[in-house]
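Lab notebook page, bench 4
Experiment: in silico fold of construct C2
Operator: M.H.
Input chain length: 104 residues
Purpose: comparison with the prior construct
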Amino acid sequence: MHPVVAIAYVDGRLAAAHLPTFLGYGVFIGEVLAPILILLGISSRIGGLIVVIDMVFAVVLVHGGQLGALTKTGGWALELQSFYLLTGLALFFLGSGKIAVKPD
């Protein structure tokens, strides 16, 4: 998906929720910058917190109707989203570890 189309979609979801549309640019921070911080081990706690915030917005704005839903195969519909959210939370609490470029 082209970045302009993605931002337009996110802006539409934010506007429907009566939130300022400039928050849509947080998608780039949450899905590009935060993973880079985590992978490089630079400020991993901050990167984890950004991922958590990004995933909370994603669940509330896009996947809110799927909280109790199951997939065709019986799995939880929000399994992947909860994995990202809880992994970001774990990184926030545990830090980057001893082999990071800049350990927390």
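Observations: The chain has one domain: 3-94. The longest helix spans residues 44-61.
Next step: discuss at group meeting.
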